[in-house]
């Protein structure tokens, strides 16, 4: 059976056509041929819209690949480092030669003069010693008291005990006039040292919140104490600290 071939690009369409001699057969198959023509026309139209040439596809792929490569290797230029201007200070030459020479000369003259003065002083002192004879020197030996120990075996005591000490304080204390007028009262702590011979030294009021008048009167009374019985450490009399509270109360 004969057939017809139609080509569009790479697409080939094959149409089967029956060959008949008579015109009656053509008229009879007119409808079939018309339908085949419509199908062929529709196929051509569809192929025209969907067809893309291979060259355009390759160019699109190449362009896409190139854009990716250019993005991957793209780098930002490093910022230029600012130029730093370095200024060096050049010290001016100073005329030091003449100054140094004058200083050396002055030192030489001074050294010679000092040597001369020393020789004269030595000679003069030697002559005076020969005239006066050997000198006599006297030395005074001062005994330095050591600090009292922090602990003692037997503490220092007031002669007669605490009762006699309280009687002495009441008999000798004088309430300061200013503190009496202002109604000032309080307790004053007094620290002192009882020496090896029993005498009282280094008297000092250590209360910070007491008035100056009360502190001064407390120190005065303690300084007037008679001798105490000194403290002992390992069977020997030693200096020892004593802290005594004195309370000032108005009637």
Explained architecture:
The chain is α+β, with helices and mostly antiparallel strands. Among the domains are: 3-55, no CATH class; 161-248, TonB (TolA/TonB C-terminal domain), CATH 3.30.2420. The chain contains 7 helices and 7 strands. It has helices at residues 23-28, 30-50, 54-72, 97-132, 161-172, 177-182, 212-223, and strands at 3-8, 11-16, 186-194, 200-205, 231-233, 236-238, 240-248. It has a 3-stranded antiparallel β-sheet with strand order 4-3-7, covered by helices on one side. β3 (186-194) and β4 (200-205) form a beta hairpin. The chain is elongated, with a radius of gyration of 65 Å. Residues 17-22 and 54-102 have low confidence and may be disordered.
First and last CA, distance: 155 Å
Question: What order do the SSEs take from the amino end to the carboxyl end, as H and E?
Answer: EEHHHHHHEEHEEE
Proportion in helices: 40-55%
In CATH, the topology of the domain at 161-248 is named: TolA/TonB C-terminal domain
Order of strands in the sheet with the most strands?
4-3-7
Instruction: Report the count of strand segments.
Output: 7
Strand content: 15-25%
What is the makeup of the main sheet?
A: 3 strands, antiparallel
Rg calculated over all Cα atoms: 65 Å
Structural class: alpha+beta
Broad shape: elongated
């Amino acid at each position: 059976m004969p057939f017809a071939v139609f080509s569009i690009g790479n697409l080939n369409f094959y149409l089967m056509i029956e060959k008949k001699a008579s015109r009656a057969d053509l008229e009879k198959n007119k409808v079939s041929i018309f339908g085949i023509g419509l199908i062929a026309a529709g196929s051509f139209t569809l192929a025209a819209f969907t067809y893309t040439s291979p060259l355009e596809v390759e160019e699109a792929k190449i362009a896409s690949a190139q854009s990716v490569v250019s993005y991957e290797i793209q780098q930002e230029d490093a910022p230029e480092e600012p130029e730093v201007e370095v200024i060096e200070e050049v010290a001016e030459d100073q005329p030091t030669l003449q100054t140094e020479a004058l200083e050396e000369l002055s030192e030489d003259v001074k050294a010679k003069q000092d040597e001369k003065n020393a020789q004269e002083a030595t000679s003069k002192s030697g002559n005076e010693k020969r005239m006066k004879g050997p000198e006599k020197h006297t030395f005074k030996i001062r005994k330095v008291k050591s600090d009292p120990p922090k602990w003692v075996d037997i503490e220092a005591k007031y002669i007669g005990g605490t009762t006699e000490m309280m009687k002495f304080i009441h008999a000798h204390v004088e309430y300061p006039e200013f503190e009496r007028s202002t109604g000032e009262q309080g307790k004053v702590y007094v620290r002192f040292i009882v020496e090896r011979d029993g005498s009282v030294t280094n008297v000092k009021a250590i209360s910070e919140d007491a008035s100056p008048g009360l502190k001064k009167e407390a120190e005065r009374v303690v300084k007037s104490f008679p001798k105490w019985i000194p403290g002992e450490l390992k069977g020997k009399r030693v200096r020892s600290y004593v802290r005594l509270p004195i309370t000032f109360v108005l009637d």
